[in-house]
Amino acid sequence: MNNASFVAPTAISLLEAHFSNASAGVYTRDFPDTPPVVFDYTGDESDNATMQFTTKSTKVKTLRYNETVEMVLQNTRLIAKESHPMHIHGLNFFVLAQGFGNYDEATAAPLFNLVNPQERNTIAVPTGGWAVIRFVANNPGMWYMHCHFEAHIEFGLAMVFEVLDGPTQETSLPPPPADLPRYIKIMGDNNGSP
């Protein structure tokens, strides 16, 4: 996502690093806000092999508690030319609009359903199309967003949101349980041990 393929940490879990404020060497907070290259995402030239390589790192997108986030999920013709069932853990989102072709804010924004949008945690982003979702970051912690096709995670269709604590104890992350494993194997990751 945004040309940054997610790589799971191998030393400690993201949650443990987040809670203990020990992100150094585990993850960085510089997930890109936009793709580095804008191109015709649904056109034939998107089959260009040079467009198919991403950076690999453990970058997370940090969000303030109660921050409203709007995301455009653009399906491209790169690698997997099929719909992508995108799922987020720990949060629900509202589906504002969906369409085909390249997302264009000028033509899509008037179509946004701001009255009674569907609330979900998974959406199928259509082949050659897009979806606009909006959510409120009101659940502190580390939340994984990914395509439900496991092979697509290796292609870069995964990321993590770091939602910061709110102003009260009730809106802050409780400590991890004492028996939380220090490392949890993530789908497609063969580098760690249980």
UniProtKB/TrEMBL annotation:
User: Where does the UniProt annotation place the signal sequence?
Assistant: none
Q: Which PROSITE patterns match?
A: MULTICOPPER_OXIDASE2
Q: Which Pfam families does the record cross-reference, listed alphabetically?
A: Cu-oxidase_2
Q: Does the keyword Metal-binding apply?
A: yes
Swiss-Prot/TrEMBL keywords: Copper, Metal-binding, Repeat, Secreted
Instruction: Return the SUPFAM superfamilies for the record.
Output: Cupredoxins (SSF49503)
Question: Where is the protein found, in the record's own terms?
Answer: Secreted
User: Is Protease included in the keywords of this UniProt record?
Assistant: no
Entry GO MF terms: copper ion binding; oxidoreductase activity
Q: What is its main location?
A: secreted
Domain (Plastocyanin-like) ranges: 30-165
Q: What is one term from the GO cellular component aspect held by the record?
A: extracellular region
Q: Which PANTHER family match?
A: LACCASE-24 (PTHR11709:SF439), MULTI-COPPER OXIDASE (PTHR11709)
Q: Which family does it belong to?
A: Belongs to the multicopper oxidase family.
Q: What name goes with this protein?
A: Os12g0257800 protein
Organism classification = Eukaryota, Viridiplantae, Streptophyta, Embryophyta, Tracheophyta
